[in-house]
Amino acid sequence: MKFATLDNHKHILKILMGRHQVTIKDIAKILNISVSTVSRALRDTYDVNAETKEKVLSLALELNYKPNFNATGLSQGSTHNIGIIIPFITNYYFSTVLTGIQEVAYENNYNIVIYITNDYPERESSIVQNLSVSSLDGLLISVSSNSDSCNQFQELIDEGLPIVFFDRVASNIETSKVMQDDYNGAFEAVEHLIENGYTRIAHIAGPKGLDFTGKRLNGYLDALKKHDMAVRQEWIVHSGFSQEWGETDTNYLLQSEHKPDAIFAVNDRKAIGAMIALKKNNINVGKEFGVIGFTNDPMCTIISPSLTTIAEPAFNIGKTSCELLLKHIKKKYFQYQEVTLPGKLIVRESTQRN
Residue 353 in 3-state DSSP? Predict the structure, then answer.
Protein backbone atom coordinates (compact mmCIF):
# COMPACT_ATOMS: atom_id res chain seq x y z
CA MET A 1 0.00 0.00 0.00
CA LYS A 2 1.40 3.38 -1.06
CA PHE A 3 0.77 6.74 0.60
CA ALA A 4 1.06 10.29 -0.65
CA THR A 5 3.35 10.99 2.26
CA LEU A 6 5.68 8.26 1.10
CA ASP A 7 5.73 9.62 -2.48
CA ASN A 8 6.42 13.14 -1.22
CA HIS A 9 9.48 11.93 0.64
CA LYS A 10 11.07 9.56 -1.87
CA HIS A 11 14.34 11.47 -1.72
CA ILE A 12 14.37 11.17 2.08
CA LEU A 13 13.63 7.47 1.90
CA LYS A 14 16.50 6.84 -0.49
CA ILE A 15 18.90 8.57 1.90
CA LEU A 16 17.47 6.78 4.92
CA MET A 17 17.54 3.33 3.38
CA GLY A 18 21.01 3.91 2.00
CA ARG A 19 22.56 5.20 5.22
CA HIS A 20 21.06 3.32 8.15
CA GLN A 21 18.42 0.94 9.38
CA VAL A 22 14.99 2.57 9.43
CA THR A 23 13.81 3.63 12.91
CA ILE A 24 10.45 4.64 14.34
CA LYS A 25 11.70 8.25 14.18
CA ASP A 26 11.95 7.90 10.40
CA ILE A 27 8.43 6.51 10.16
CA ALA A 28 7.09 9.31 12.37
CA LYS A 29 8.82 11.98 10.24
CA ILE A 30 7.49 10.58 6.96
CA LEU A 31 3.90 10.28 8.21
CA ASN A 32 4.12 13.58 10.11
CA ILE A 33 2.98 12.05 13.40
CA SER A 34 4.65 11.72 16.80
CA VAL A 35 7.19 9.02 17.60
CA SER A 36 5.03 7.89 20.53
CA THR A 37 2.05 7.38 18.16
CA VAL A 38 4.20 5.22 15.89
CA SER A 39 5.42 3.25 18.89
CA ARG A 40 1.89 2.64 20.16
CA ALA A 41 0.68 1.64 16.69
CA LEU A 42 3.49 -0.88 16.32
CA ARG A 43 2.66 -2.29 19.76
CA ASP A 44 -1.06 -2.43 18.82
CA THR A 45 -2.22 -0.42 21.84
CA TYR A 46 -5.83 0.61 22.31
CA ASP A 47 -5.37 4.40 21.98
CA VAL A 48 -4.40 4.58 18.27
CA ASN A 49 -7.19 4.77 15.69
CA ALA A 50 -7.44 2.08 13.02
CA GLU A 51 -6.51 4.34 10.08
CA THR A 52 -3.32 5.59 11.70
CA LYS A 53 -2.40 2.10 12.80
CA GLU A 54 -2.84 0.80 9.24
CA LYS A 55 -0.63 3.55 7.79
CA VAL A 56 2.10 2.92 10.32
CA LEU A 57 2.09 -0.84 9.86
CA SER A 58 2.02 -0.61 6.07
CA LEU A 59 4.88 1.87 5.95
CA ALA A 60 6.89 -0.18 8.43
CA LEU A 61 6.42 -3.22 6.20
CA GLU A 62 7.35 -1.32 3.03
CA LEU A 63 10.53 0.06 4.60
CA ASN A 64 11.45 -3.30 6.11
CA TYR A 65 11.46 -1.76 9.58
CA LYS A 66 12.99 -3.99 12.24
CA PRO A 67 12.39 -3.28 15.96
CA ASN A 68 15.35 -2.44 18.17
CA PHE A 69 15.45 -5.58 20.26
CA ASN A 70 18.23 -4.12 22.39
CA ALA A 71 15.59 -1.72 23.70
CA THR A 72 12.61 -4.03 23.77
CA GLY A 73 14.50 -6.76 25.60
CA LEU A 74 13.55 -10.40 25.45
CA SER A 75 10.38 -10.05 23.43
CA GLN A 76 9.33 -13.64 23.97
CA GLY A 77 10.02 -13.87 27.67
CA SER A 78 10.99 -12.10 30.87
CA THR A 79 14.35 -11.38 32.45
CA HIS A 80 12.74 -10.74 35.87
CA ASN A 81 15.13 -7.83 36.33
CA ILE A 82 14.05 -4.26 37.13
CA GLY A 83 16.44 -1.35 36.71
CA ILE A 84 16.38 1.62 39.12
CA ILE A 85 18.03 4.97 38.35
CA ILE A 86 18.37 7.21 41.42
CA PRO A 87 20.40 10.31 42.37
CA PHE A 88 21.65 8.92 45.72
CA ILE A 89 21.69 5.71 47.72
CA THR A 90 23.05 6.94 51.09
CA ASN A 91 20.27 9.53 51.32
CA TYR A 92 17.63 8.46 53.89
CA TYR A 93 14.72 9.22 51.58
CA PHE A 94 16.01 7.18 48.63
CA SER A 95 17.16 4.29 50.79
CA THR A 96 13.63 4.11 52.21
CA VAL A 97 12.12 4.25 48.71
CA LEU A 98 14.42 1.40 47.68
CA THR A 99 13.19 -0.67 50.62
CA GLY A 100 9.62 -0.27 49.36
CA ILE A 101 10.61 -1.16 45.80
CA GLN A 102 12.57 -4.17 46.98
CA GLU A 103 9.65 -5.53 49.00
CA VAL A 104 7.31 -5.56 46.00
CA ALA A 105 9.96 -6.77 43.56
CA TYR A 106 11.03 -9.72 45.68
CA GLU A 107 7.44 -10.70 46.43
CA ASN A 108 6.95 -11.01 42.66
CA ASN A 109 10.28 -12.81 42.03
CA TYR A 110 12.00 -9.83 40.43
CA ASN A 111 15.59 -8.77 40.99
CA ILE A 112 16.62 -5.12 41.11
CA VAL A 113 19.61 -3.51 39.38
CA ILE A 114 20.56 -0.10 40.81
CA TYR A 115 22.22 2.74 38.87
CA ILE A 116 23.36 5.80 40.85
CA THR A 117 23.79 9.20 39.16
CA ASN A 118 25.10 11.12 42.22
CA ASP A 119 22.73 13.82 40.93
CA TYR A 120 24.92 14.53 37.89
CA PRO A 121 22.94 14.85 34.62
CA GLU A 122 26.04 13.84 32.62
CA ARG A 123 26.33 10.59 34.55
CA GLU A 124 22.61 10.00 34.16
CA SER A 125 22.93 10.48 30.41
CA SER A 126 25.85 8.05 30.29
CA ILE A 127 23.90 5.45 32.27
CA VAL A 128 20.93 5.72 29.92
CA GLN A 129 23.08 5.46 26.81
CA ASN A 130 24.90 2.39 28.11
CA LEU A 131 21.98 0.54 29.68
CA SER A 132 21.86 -3.14 28.93
CA VAL A 133 18.12 -2.85 28.52
CA SER A 134 17.86 -6.22 26.83
CA SER A 135 18.40 -7.66 30.29
CA LEU A 136 15.69 -5.51 31.92
CA ASP A 137 11.91 -5.91 31.96
CA GLY A 138 11.34 -2.32 33.09
CA LEU A 139 12.89 0.76 34.61
CA LEU A 140 12.13 2.94 37.67
CA ILE A 141 13.60 6.44 37.49
CA SER A 142 14.10 9.45 39.73
CA VAL A 143 15.80 12.03 37.55
CA SER A 144 18.87 14.05 38.52
CA SER A 145 18.89 17.82 39.02
CA ASN A 146 18.86 19.75 35.73
CA SER A 147 18.41 16.48 33.88
CA ASP A 148 18.64 16.70 30.10
CA SER A 149 18.09 13.00 29.46
CA CYS A 150 14.31 13.16 29.09
CA ASN A 151 14.49 12.60 25.33
CA GLN A 152 16.53 9.48 25.92
CA PHE A 153 13.94 8.18 28.38
CA GLN A 154 11.25 8.86 25.78
CA GLU A 155 13.19 6.86 23.21
CA LEU A 156 13.27 3.86 25.56
CA ILE A 157 9.50 4.14 26.10
CA ASP A 158 8.90 4.46 22.36
CA GLU A 159 10.87 1.27 21.78
CA GLY A 160 8.63 -0.55 24.25
CA LEU A 161 10.55 -0.52 27.56
CA PRO A 162 8.12 0.06 30.49
CA ILE A 163 9.20 3.05 32.60
CA VAL A 164 7.76 4.56 35.79
CA PHE A 165 9.06 7.81 37.30
CA PHE A 166 8.98 8.43 41.04
CA ASP A 167 9.65 11.47 43.27
CA ARG A 168 11.68 13.47 40.73
CA VAL A 169 9.63 13.00 37.59
CA ALA A 170 9.93 14.09 33.97
CA SER A 171 6.76 16.15 33.65
CA ASN A 172 6.69 16.17 29.83
CA ILE A 173 6.79 12.38 29.38
CA GLU A 174 3.56 10.39 29.35
CA THR A 175 4.05 7.36 31.54
CA SER A 176 3.13 6.39 35.09
CA LYS A 177 4.49 8.59 37.89
CA VAL A 178 4.42 8.37 41.68
CA MET A 179 4.95 11.52 43.74
CA GLN A 180 4.36 12.92 47.18
CA ASP A 181 2.00 15.91 47.48
CA ASP A 182 4.70 18.54 47.21
CA TYR A 183 2.40 21.52 46.76
CA ASN A 184 0.10 20.89 49.72
CA GLY A 185 2.99 19.79 51.91
CA ALA A 186 4.78 23.07 51.24
CA PHE A 187 1.58 25.06 51.75
CA GLU A 188 1.00 23.38 55.12
CA ALA A 189 4.61 23.96 56.18
CA VAL A 190 4.49 27.69 55.48
CA GLU A 191 1.05 28.09 57.00
CA HIS A 192 2.33 26.37 60.15
CA LEU A 193 5.11 28.98 60.39
CA ILE A 194 2.59 31.80 59.94
CA GLU A 195 0.27 30.38 62.59
CA ASN A 196 3.19 30.30 65.00
CA GLY A 197 3.89 33.99 64.61
CA TYR A 198 6.62 34.12 61.96
CA THR A 199 6.01 36.92 59.48
CA ARG A 200 9.13 37.12 57.28
CA ILE A 201 9.44 33.67 55.74
CA ALA A 202 12.18 32.73 53.28
CA HIS A 203 12.43 29.62 51.11
CA ILE A 204 15.72 27.83 50.43
CA ALA A 205 14.63 25.85 47.40
CA GLY A 206 16.04 23.07 45.25
CA PRO A 207 17.50 23.51 41.76
CA LYS A 208 15.29 25.14 39.17
CA GLY A 209 13.79 22.84 36.55
CA LEU A 210 12.80 19.96 38.83
CA ASP A 211 9.06 19.34 38.96
CA PHE A 212 8.86 19.04 42.74
CA THR A 213 11.05 22.13 43.27
CA GLY A 214 8.42 24.13 41.40
CA LYS A 215 5.52 22.59 43.28
CA ARG A 216 7.05 23.28 46.69
CA LEU A 217 7.84 26.83 45.61
CA ASN A 218 4.23 27.34 44.48
CA GLY A 219 2.94 25.99 47.80
CA TYR A 220 5.19 28.48 49.61
CA LEU A 221 4.02 31.40 47.46
CA ASP A 222 0.32 30.57 47.73
CA ALA A 223 0.47 30.24 51.51
CA LEU A 224 2.00 33.72 51.74
CA LYS A 225 -0.62 35.12 49.39
CA LYS A 226 -3.45 33.53 51.37
CA HIS A 227 -2.28 35.37 54.50
CA ASP A 228 -1.55 38.64 52.65
CA MET A 229 2.18 38.45 53.23
CA ALA A 230 4.64 40.08 50.87
CA VAL A 231 6.70 37.91 48.55
CA ARG A 232 10.34 39.00 48.45
CA GLN A 233 12.29 37.49 45.58
CA GLU A 234 15.55 37.90 47.53
CA TRP A 235 14.13 35.48 50.11
CA ILE A 236 13.83 32.70 47.53
CA VAL A 237 17.19 30.97 47.03
CA HIS A 238 17.70 28.08 44.57
CA SER A 239 20.64 25.72 45.06
CA GLY A 240 21.50 22.07 45.76
CA PHE A 241 20.00 19.71 48.32
CA SER A 242 22.89 19.24 50.75
CA GLN A 243 23.39 20.42 54.32
CA GLU A 244 26.25 22.60 53.07
CA TRP A 245 23.94 24.36 50.64
CA GLY A 246 21.46 24.96 53.45
CA GLU A 247 24.17 26.66 55.50
CA THR A 248 25.39 28.72 52.55
CA ASP A 249 21.87 29.84 51.60
CA THR A 250 21.07 30.87 55.18
CA ASN A 251 24.25 32.91 55.52
CA TYR A 252 23.27 34.69 52.31
CA LEU A 253 19.82 35.48 53.71
CA LEU A 254 21.28 36.78 56.99
CA GLN A 255 23.39 39.28 55.04
CA SER A 256 20.41 40.81 53.25
CA GLU A 257 19.08 44.23 54.19
CA HIS A 258 15.66 42.80 55.07
CA LYS A 259 16.32 39.68 57.11
CA PRO A 260 13.72 36.89 57.39
CA ASP A 261 12.60 35.41 60.70
CA ALA A 262 11.84 31.91 59.38
CA ILE A 263 12.93 29.47 56.67
CA PHE A 264 11.02 26.80 54.81
CA ALA A 265 13.65 24.43 53.39
CA VAL A 266 13.05 22.18 50.39
CA ASN A 267 14.36 19.20 52.41
CA ASP A 268 15.58 18.33 55.89
CA ARG A 269 19.27 18.36 55.04
CA LYS A 270 19.06 21.97 53.91
CA ALA A 271 16.97 22.79 56.99
CA ILE A 272 19.68 21.32 59.24
CA GLY A 273 22.28 23.37 57.40
CA ALA A 274 20.12 26.43 58.05
CA MET A 275 19.99 25.64 61.77
CA ILE A 276 23.78 25.27 61.91
CA ALA A 277 24.22 28.67 60.25
CA LEU A 278 21.76 30.27 62.69
CA LYS A 279 23.58 28.78 65.69
CA LYS A 280 26.92 30.07 64.39
CA ASN A 281 25.33 33.53 64.26
CA ASN A 282 24.01 33.16 67.83
CA ILE A 283 20.40 33.15 66.68
CA ASN A 284 18.03 31.06 68.82
CA VAL A 285 16.29 28.50 66.58
CA GLY A 286 12.59 28.35 67.35
CA LYS A 287 12.24 31.28 69.76
CA GLU A 288 13.83 33.83 67.45
CA PHE A 289 13.88 32.12 64.07
CA GLY A 290 11.66 29.31 62.76
CA VAL A 291 12.93 26.48 60.57
CA ILE A 292 10.88 23.76 58.90
CA GLY A 293 12.05 21.03 56.51
CA PHE A 294 10.57 18.37 54.22
CA THR A 295 11.27 14.60 54.45
CA ASN A 296 11.31 13.50 58.13
CA ASP A 297 14.91 12.33 58.05
CA PRO A 298 15.98 10.56 61.31
CA MET A 299 18.36 13.49 61.89
CA CYS A 300 15.29 15.62 62.65
CA THR A 301 15.02 14.11 66.14
CA ILE A 302 18.78 14.03 66.83
CA ILE A 303 19.61 17.66 66.14
CA SER A 304 18.86 20.20 68.88
CA PRO A 305 16.38 21.77 68.78
CA SER A 306 14.48 19.02 66.99
CA LEU A 307 13.33 19.87 63.47
CA THR A 308 9.71 20.38 62.42
CA THR A 309 9.11 18.83 59.01
CA ILE A 310 6.68 17.43 56.45
CA ALA A 311 7.02 13.64 56.50
CA GLU A 312 7.20 12.10 53.03
CA PRO A 313 5.65 8.65 52.39
CA ALA A 314 8.95 7.34 51.00
CA PHE A 315 8.32 3.62 51.62
CA ASN A 316 4.87 3.75 50.01
CA ILE A 317 6.25 5.71 47.06
CA GLY A 318 8.67 2.84 46.47
CA LYS A 319 5.98 0.19 46.79
CA THR A 320 3.48 2.00 44.58
CA SER A 321 5.99 2.79 41.84
CA CYS A 322 7.13 -0.84 41.66
CA GLU A 323 3.53 -2.10 41.64
CA LEU A 324 2.74 0.21 38.73
CA LEU A 325 5.83 -0.89 36.82
CA LEU A 326 4.86 -4.54 37.17
CA LYS A 327 1.42 -3.71 35.77
CA HIS A 328 3.05 -2.04 32.76
CA ILE A 329 5.28 -5.09 32.29
CA LYS A 330 2.47 -7.64 32.55
CA LYS A 331 -0.39 -5.81 30.80
CA LYS A 332 0.09 -4.70 27.22
CA TYR A 333 -2.81 -2.23 27.29
CA PHE A 334 -2.26 -0.78 30.78
CA GLN A 335 -3.11 2.93 30.84
CA TYR A 336 -0.49 5.05 32.57
CA GLN A 337 -1.36 6.55 35.96
CA GLU A 338 -0.16 9.47 38.06
CA VAL A 339 -0.33 8.79 41.80
CA THR A 340 0.15 11.49 44.45
CA LEU A 341 0.58 10.43 48.08
CA PRO A 342 0.00 12.88 50.96
CA GLY A 343 2.63 13.95 53.47
CA LYS A 344 2.15 14.75 57.16
CA LEU A 345 3.17 17.73 59.30
CA ILE A 346 5.41 16.67 62.21
CA VAL A 347 5.70 19.54 64.72
CA ARG A 348 8.89 19.75 66.80
CA GLU A 349 10.95 22.41 68.58
CA SER A 350 12.34 24.37 65.61
CA THR A 351 9.03 26.18 65.06
CA GLN A 352 8.04 26.71 68.72
CA ARG A 353 8.36 30.36 69.76
CA ASN A 354 7.28 29.71 73.38
Answer: coil
